[in-house]
Amino acid sequence: MLGFGAAGVFAQKKKSSRDLEPRYRKWIEEEVVYIITPKEKEVFLQLETDREREIFIEAFWRQRDPDPNTPDNEFRTEHYQRISQANRLFGRDAPGPGWRTDMGRIHILLGEPHSVERYDTLTEIYPVIIWFYSGMSDLGLPNSFNVVFFKKDGIGAYELYSPVRHGPQSLLIHYKGDMTMFDQAYLELRRIAVPVAEVSLSLLPGESAAAVPQLSMASEILIANRIPNAPLERVKDAYAEKLLRYKDIIDVEYTANYIDSDAMVRVLHDASGQAFVHYLLEPRRLTFETAGRAYRSLLEINGHVADSGGRTVYQFERKIPIEFDQDRIEMIRDKLFSYQDIFPLVEGRYRLSLLFKNVVSREFASFEAEIDIPSAAAFSMSPITLAHRITRDSKYQGQNKAFLVPGGQLVPSPRNDFAQGDILVAHVQVRGLPRALEGRARMEYTIEREGQPVLTTNRDLIGIGGVADIVQEFPLQDFSPAYYKVRAVLHPGGGIDPIPAEADFYIASVPHLPRPWVLSMPLPAGNDPEIANILGGQFLNLKQIDRARDLLEKEHRNRPADPRFAMDYCRALLASGDFSRAKAVALSFLGDPPRPEFRQIAGQACQALGEYAEAVVHYKEHLAHFGTHLAVLNAVGECYHRLGDTEEALTAWKKSLEIEPNQEKIRALVDSLKKRP
Asked: What is the set of domains in the chain, with CATH numbers?
């Protein structure tokens, strides 16, 4: 089972690039200085080993690879070609290498221009070069634009020209007018070279054609912001943060293969009043390997729930093999994949971390979320869940399943995207409505566009009981494509303030949207012993020993032969100090056939009861079966020490120190025993 650190992702000490070895310093200060995002740079400077840096660099280029399915990375190849060209073409008149010049920087950022105009032989203006670009709107740039360079005062390397900062007067050699008045200089430039005059006001074709000449602020934004950010436009740098967060807890093969994903989390109570966390994760891709005519994948999902102090409350792991034939693969080939799951959780505020791994492709995705588990008895309303469909199917009756509510199976999208042919399904859950207000409460739904109500509905809430799931459907065929907001307001009546909730959504200009195929894992109902056992373990981790023992004892009595329930019950007995009962339960599982995992429990109980010789027997059996275990080795040493057998105590503790030298308490005990005569 994986462990998750509770520290923030940027808790590590940041380094300066000056602290890096020369090859990594060159990489970040020269090779990718123009194309690395601030987040990527921040993460790279926190990495601690060369191995981590190499993994990061691999991931960096992978995120920019236009076709990851080919062995070549065309983006990386072209990038280094641009650097080489910049050094060869633009460094002659500059004190440093060509990549440092303004022309070299623009060449690396945008590549070769579509056309070049040179005005470097005119006697009345300083040398000017105009680069023209077009067709780069996918990088957040105008459809067409110019980039202008000039030799300031006629000497040195070409500099990037700005209409606002330099103005047309800076291009004229013998300009005698007011240097703060650009319009006179513009007219003089028009007499000499009209193309130069036009770009002196604006880098955007056609913008300078106004009746009254104006310096273009849009051009300043273009060269100061939009061009420098163009290579970052299509980079999703969340992978860098994930790499840093998970680099110590997943295999190195995964760390360069982060997959961006969408996620959603909701907390809903079932009819018994038990809270469940419903979640979905939709990675951008799911990779299969082929084996003959079969297509296989193996998913591992690791979840970790921690309280505000970072204490682990619950951990879970799912291993899900998937195998499809050719027909099934063809059906899902162009669809997203949605993994949906559910787990119970006791009241409180927590942080959920979920790690999704594809063992076949060594890819991973993840998400983190803050979750609040209220009491079912407390009057509250859940956030809105929007779904594009609700499936009314009775086959999961009596079970719990992600986004399964009494009205049916919600099929939500984490993007809240809808087509005009969809029916928008809005769901909220009302909990703990006072009985005195039943029949007086009502739910008001409003759909808004740009702050204006488009549709409003009201419904009375009659006989809804302690936990009520309220589903409202809105056909969208009469709504035009746009962004909307749906607002739900619970009016309890009785002088109690309304409770609002809202969610944004948008309607696309298509009749239907492609929807993902769903893999969803059902769980037993909230009153099932499996669920109670999970909750008992959570109470135990929260140090709520009495509540944990009550739950775990009940389930152990219901299934006394089940070792899983017995093990958790023994943990609660040890935590509550009932060592005799813990020993008795553990010993009952050491008969025929024996369950060796209970040896440590038996040893702990015997040690706590002062039965050190018997404890040693159990501990040694545990070590013989499971191998070296630091806590058990140290416990053996403690028992021998209590029995007065110094030699055996030293043997156990020395072996423990060989495995983990950083045990100051154990080392002090060994040193103390060695000094004895």
From this structure: 1-250 (no CATH), 259-524 (2.60.40.1930), 577-675 (1.25.40.10)
